[in-house]
Specification:
Strand order of the largest sheet: 4-5-7-6
Helix content: 55-70%
Radius of gyration: 35 Å
Number of helices: 10
CATH class of the largest domain: Alpha Beta
Number of domains: 2
CATH superfamily of the largest domain: Homing endonucleases
Order of helices and strands: HHEHEEHEEHEEHHHHH
Largest sheet: 4 strands, antiparallel
Number of strands: 7
Structural class: alpha+beta
Shape: rod-shaped
């Protein structure tokens, strides 16, 4: 959906300068025909109308032909004959703005952009390797070196880095797509932060529950093997509070003490109970009385 909307928006943006319009027309003819066919073919009506508009004096001789969808090709197809002056492979543009127009044309003719669950992706699938090499040169001249791969016998020129995709779309004038991608990234980052916070909180709760269960087990052993009444007042108080409030954190237990005590002190008293239980299990008798 983002590719279609981006292309439609770009197709409605006709350059004002004559040399930029000429570069855009030449680029559409080049990447839309592979440099060998005599027809420019696209599934987007807006792109077809853009190319037809750029033909200027040749428009009457090359109207837009609409072909009905087939079983294999369910989208309608728009075809326009290419004038002789736009056939073949033109020289590389000398001016930066004209090179950017050719990159825009390549995106309209054989490019796509996506922001799926696996990340961001912008690619060009040129009809011939020579065109892929030419496009790679164009992109490098714009300061954005792409990556390449092979797919079904064709060279695919692509980007996966979000910042590179945004910079490229900005250079070719696809500002609405840039805003959309920024919104997508902001939403994803927000969701990821929420997930991290939820996961962290869940992990903390699990650790707290596990520690509390271990503490209750120690206190239950002491109650049977030693008797809570024999504990010092400080240890007896924290032991009883832990049994009465099994799900509370150390800080919450500390607030229930009389007088309230800090979390490190609660931890120290529970550790003292654990050491006493260990001594009793080892048959060494009670340890020194804790504070």
């Amino acid at each position: 959906m983002i590719s279609a909307d981006t292309k439609d928006a770009l197709a409605r943006d006709v350059p004002e300068a004559a040399h930029c319009r000429a570069a855009l027309a030449a680029g559409l003819a080049l990447y839309g025909t592979g440099g060998v066919r005599s027809e420019f073919v696209t599934h987007r009506n807006a792109i077809a109308r853009l190319f037809w508009t750029l033909l200027d004096d040749d428009r009457k001789a090359h109207p837009i032909a609409t072909r009905t969808p087939t079983r294999l090709q369910r989208l309608p197809t728009f075809a326009i004959g290419v004038p002789d002056r736009l056939r073949g492979v033109p020289p590389k543009p000398a001016h930066r703005c004209d090179r950017l127009m050719e990159i825009r044309a390549a995106f309209l003719a054989c490019g796509s952009v996506a922001a799926g669950g696996h990340g961001y992706h912008l690619e060009f699938v040129a009809a011939r390797d020579e065109l892929a090499q030419r496009l790679t040169w164009m992109l490098r001249s714009a300061g954005l070196a792409p990556k390449t791969t092979r797919r079904k016998g064709r060279t695919v020129v692509y980007y996966k880095d979000f910042d590179a995709i945004v910079e490229l779309l900005t250079l070719v004038g696809a500002f609405s797509a840039v805003l959309h991608l920024e919104d997508v990234r902001a939403l994803r980052e927000t969701k990821n932060r929420i997930h991290r916070l939820v996961n962290t909180e869940a992990a903390n709760l699990e650790r707290t529950a596990a520690a509390a269960a271990a503490q209750r087990s120690v206190i239950a052993y002491l109650e049977n093997a030693y008797g809570l009444a024999k504990l010092s007042p400080a240890l007896r108080e924290i032991a009883q509070l832990r049994l009465l409030h099994p799900d509370e954190s150390l800080a919450e237990l500390g607030n229930r003490c009389n007088p309230p005590i800090a979390k490190p002190t609660v931890s120290s008293r529970l550790s003292a109970l654990a050491r006493l239980a260990d001594r009793l299990r080892d048959g060494k008798g009670p340890a020194t009385r804790a504070r």
